[in-house]
Amino acid sequence: MHATPTTRAARQQARRQRARHSIAISATSTGVVIAGLAVAIVLSPGWRTVRETFFSWHYFKQVLPSLPGGFWLDVQIFLVVEAIVLALGLMIALIRTVRAPVLFPLRVVSVVFVDVMRGVPLLILLYLFVFGLLALGFSFIPSDETILAGAALVCCYAAYVSEVFRAGIESVHPSQPAAALALGLTRPQALRHVVMPQAIRAVLPPLLNDFISLTKDVSLVSIFGPLEIVRIAQINADQYFNYTPYIAAAAFYLVITLPLIRIVDHMRSRALRRQNALVLM
Prior knowledge:
The chain is mainly alpha-helical and 281 residues long. It has 11 helices and no strands. It has helices spanning 7-42, 47-54, 57-63, 67-97, 104-119, 122-136, 145-171, 175-182, 187-217, 229-240, 244-280.
């Protein structure tokens, strides 16, 4: 005789069947929508012109060898800027959350900095840093437009990242640092060993979203002449009177951003499952 399945096993089997059914419906509906959009685009009156102007395989192959060098410059700028943004954003967040009276002037400066940097469009910040700082004439200000544009990116994104860090720090329940103090830890130790690990774990998904935005905004440096990937694509597009080089440049960005987007989605799903598991316990 076969053993009858337990109630728990039956529930798990029913859950798996529902999951497979949902996946099948989702895949079918998605395929129908994508196929419909593809047919509508291909049958549109201007599709031939769009294909030749934006998706020419001839120009794609022609411009592709010249793009990796420019993309490597983007990657270098991103890595340097992101490292500084993380350090500066965390420092600003700590200044704004630590209530020591001696830090009050720094808190005022931090609030003004964050409000201004978040309120001014990034493109205007780039012009102010590159042209405005150079116009001051100080000898200690670098004349390299790439460095000045990178400084503008640092200030803009440090303001946003500081708010992400501050939200994470403030999301930690007050009982956590209080318990650490009761166990004999000092306030800096409680902040370092108790508050910050929980805060950083909570803000990783929004931090990765900022990273994704920064990878794309680095291309704005091309306005000032550096031969990064968008600038090279622009030169080729002007030379061939064809926009396919921009599509080729976009493909390089997708290689970086799509895995990051999937990582963010995975982290959010895992956090949601962990939260639901805690609720059901």
